[in-house]
Amino acid sequence: MIPKLHYISQGATPKEHLENIQKACSAGAELVQLCLENISEKKYFKLAKEAREITSYFQTRLIIYNDYKIARAVKADGVHLETADTASMKARIHLYTWQIIGGTANTIQDCKTLINTQVDYITLGPFRAIDTEGKVNTTLGLKGYTAIVEALNTKTPIIGRGSITTKDISEILNTGISGVAVADEITQNFDIVKKFNQLLSASSTEEKRHTF
Fewer C-beta within 10 Å: the chain N or C terminus? Predict the structure, then answer.
């Protein structure tokens, strides 16, 4: 089962990413993603090993961003791939059978491509406008989420992402989205992890209560 809250690591330096992962784990995050870019493979491997030690201590799941070889090497819980293409099929061959694969999507077609390659979860966004360093993605909002989730009608968990706050949780989950991936809101205040978990769990309880 894919946790409903994903913390995407942030930091001005790689060391800060690790410090923030530890804070998120300590605050109760069930899954964290080590999200580093523009870094050598050797350094990424070293940092991923340290992240694995931190998350193992807290029994938190660790996802490695965009590098399935490192995810396998450090025995992370899985990998998150940015591109919605054959990369996930290639990764599946190299990973352990118990490791999971996530992918990023912005459109229905992105989602279908990922579902066809049998990813374990999809991060769909942005929910609202975010700085994507020159990349232009359609802001989906509640209407976009509803339309895509209804069109897909899939059991693959869809995780919302893109400047999501605790105030958005109830409405986002009502669209059929399974959970949320959060960076800024948690990095600014790790105590808010507890509130995210409570809101997401309340939704799970509500679902069970109305399932007959």
Answer: C
The string of pLDDT tens digits covering residues 11-63 is 999 999 999 999 999 999 999 999 999 999 999 999 999 999 999 999 999 99
What distance, in Å, lies between the first and last C-alpha atoms of the chain? 21
Classify 63 as helix, strand or coil: strand
Write the DSSP symbol of residue 181: E
Tokens of 137: 């993605």
Domain spanning 5-209: which superfamily?
Aldolase class I (3.20.20.70)
In this predicted structure, what is the pLDDT of residue 137?
Answer: 76
Give the chain's length.
Answer: 212
The pTM is what? 0.92
- CA pair distance 90, 32, nearest whole angstrom: 23
Helix H segments across 153-183?
Answer: 169-174
